[in-house]
Amino acid sequence: MRDDELLTVPEAMERLKVGRSTVYDLIRSRRLPSITIGRCRRIPARAVREYITNELEAAA
Fold this sequence. Notes:
Layout: E1 6-7, H1 9-16, H2 20-28, E2 35-37, E3 40-44, H3 45-59
Antiparallel strand pairs: 1-3, 2-3
Helix pairs in contact: 1-2
């Protein structure tokens, strides 16, 4: 996985093992940064990794 890779919502769902509404809730709450290109929502792969890291640190 490259740092500059942009993931679709379904790809982010697969990597996080969560549902569509959870991904959109994370985006809406600004816990998972994303960009919009045209009408398409994209999540940087780096942001998914950082989210996981932050959640692991918070749980420790």
